[in-house]
Each structure stands twice: as structure tokens, then as C-alpha cells.
Amino acid sequence: MKDRTDIPALDKRVPGVPAIEPVLFPKLDALYARRSSRLEELAFELVKEAVQNEASSAPADEVNAGYFGFLATLVAAQGRILAHSPLSLTETAPIRALLREGNTSPEIPSQEMLENTQYWQKAFAALVADAGDHLPAETQESLQALAAEQPGVLAAQAYALLSGQYDQVNAGAAVFLWAALSVFWAQAIALLAQDDATLHQRRSEGGACPCCGAPPSGSLVLTGDREGLRYLQCSLCETRWHKVRATCSMCDETGHIDYWSFEDTNAPIQAETCGDCKSYVKLFRLDRDPALEILADDLATVVLDAALEEQGFIRAALNPFSFPA
């Protein structure tokens, strides 16, 4: 995959060693392009595996390839919303209202706020129309019916999703709902950060995103001008926040941190576990493989999750392409 970095260039106008930025805001157009491309690449690899593997495992590979292909289409649709229906600064008002002063965590959005915010609702309908035809007819009909519902019905589903009440959400709609909410939140935070310098200095509390309060989708070790720095990436607004390496992303302890992989110690994808709180977060080493994409490659390494859960560790990250059961 051609590397199209979504990480802004380091400002080198100030002489000397640059300070570590607490927060990084991605270039969203490049982020969606990279993610969609990586999903397509992984789908192609799964198709090849289905051809090469024994008959017993080939059907599973084909199903997974189909899902990765669908997700590539969904992410590309997010990119088209960004390009053709960008959020205005005025439309960021609901998100601005959630940001408390200082470095305290943002307020959790209410169902009423979600009901009164039209942008993400229109984005949901657009995503269903754009990417829904890759799904079975029954699922398409269910999504179209939900998109046509009153705002309160859609908002109730979105509120349950953001609150972690996954069993209360239409299973076929969850990925579309999060994609719509994410393309709204990501644009809002990026726009607000252009005028609000305090957003660039916010700090995470309890492992949650400092700009929207959502859980991370994993952590990245960067390459290039920020070689070796570790940032966690938000599952909702895509913001990245700095975290010292070998420090638990959830409880900040450092005494019992271990790294796991199925390869050698130089594996580009590892899991960082904490023996104190028993949580784990995957670590994607862009300094070892710059083609990695946090959501796509997380989904492609679920076997590592299964192995860690057998060891008693609890996943602290959220992948909006695969919500907890």
C-alpha cells in the first residue's frame, strides 16, 4: 500500500529539539484514504488465502474478505461525506458545548443533544445509501427503515452505542451509526482545534480521549520526525494523544508491563498488557511497518485478542468495526 500519511508534519520553525505534542489531529482526508486502501489490501490477502487454504477454512476466509471489502466501501463513503458535505464551524456548536474548561474530560453527549444534531443523522442516511448495497437485502431494508425514522429513534440508538450499551443497538446498524457519529465528531474537533489552542494541550483521564471521552482504538509508535513516540488513537474523533511508552494506557502503572506477539520481539503488531489492572491495548509499530492502519490491522489480528483473553487480560480498546458482543 502506498504510504499516504495522515499525520501532520512537524513544525520545524522553532530551533532546537521540538517539544512532544500532547495531542495530534489527523488529516482526515488522508486518514480515510489510507484506511480504505488498507482494508482493500487485507481483503485481497484473505481472498488469496481462501484459494490456497484447505476447504475447511476457505469459507471463513471468504466471509472475512467480504466484510473487509464492505468496510473499505464504508470508509470511502466517509471520505466522500468529508469532501462533498464538510461540517461548518457553526455546526460544531454541540461539540464545543461538551468541552469543559481545562483538561477535564469532555461531557458525555445526551440523547437530546444527539437528537437535535442533524449533521450526523444526514451522514447516517448518506452512508446507508452509499455503502448499504454491499449488505444482504434484509439488512439493507432494516437500515433504510432506521434512516427514515424520527430523529428521536435514531438518537436513542446512537446514545446507547456511545454509552457502551451494545446489546441495545440494532446489530446491523451499529457500524453505520458509529461511522456517521465519527465523521461528525472528527471534523468538529479538527475545526475547533484550529481556533482553540487549549485543545492541543488536553490530557487524557483514565485512558479516554481528551477531546471527546471515547475509548482508544489502540496505540501507535510513530516514525519520521516523531520516531519512537507513542500515541493512542481515539475510536470516535480520531484524535491522537501522547502516552509515555511502557506505561499502562488505562491505569498509568509501569511496574508490570509486558509485550506479546506471535512473532519475534521485533513484530510490528504487539499487545501491551498491564499486570496491575489486567488490561491490554495493541501497539502498532509504524516505525517497523508504516503501512499499518490501526482499525484495519486490529481487525486482522483478532487471534491475538483471543490468546490474551485466555490469559485473563481485558481488552481496553474499542474497534468500531467489531463491537463487543
In short:
This protein is α+β, with helices and mostly antiparallel strands and 325 residues long. It is built from ten helices and eight strands.
Mean pLDDT: 93
* Fraction in beta strands: 5-15%
Topology as a string of helices (H) and strands (E) = EHHHHHHHHEEEEEEHHE
Q: Which oligomeric form is depicted?
A: single chain
Structural class: alpha+beta
Number of helices: 10
> Total number of β-strand segments?
8
Q: How would you describe this protein?
A:
Its main location: cytoplasm. Residues 65-196 form the FdhE N-terminal domain. Residues 248-321 form the FdhE C-terminal domain. Necessary for formate dehydrogenase activity. It is found in: Cytoplasm. This protein is α+β, with helices and mostly antiparallel strands and 325 residues long. It folds into two domains: 23-201, no CATH class; 216-315, no CATH class. It is 42% helix and 11% strand. It has ten helices and eight strands. Strands 1, 2, 3, 4, 5, 6, 7 and 8 form an eight-stranded mixed beta sheet that branches. α2 packs across α5. The longest helix has 27 residues, at 58-84. The protein is globular. The two termini are 32 Å apart.
Record keyword descriptors for this entry.
325 residues; alpha+beta; eight-stranded mixed beta sheet; 10 helices; 8 strands; globular
Chain-wise SSE layout:
Blueprint (H helix, E strand, L loop, with lengths): L22 E2 L3 H25 L5 H27 L8 H6 L12 H5 L2 H14 L5 H11 L3 H12 L11 H22 L20 E6 L8 E5 L5 E3 L14 E4 L8 E6 L4 E7 L8 H6 L2 H9 L3 E2 L10
Parallel strand pairs: 2-7, 7-8
Antiparallel strand pairs: 1-4, 2-3, 3-4, 5-6, 6-7
Helix pairs in contact: 1-2, 2-5, 2-8, 5-6, 5-8, 7-8
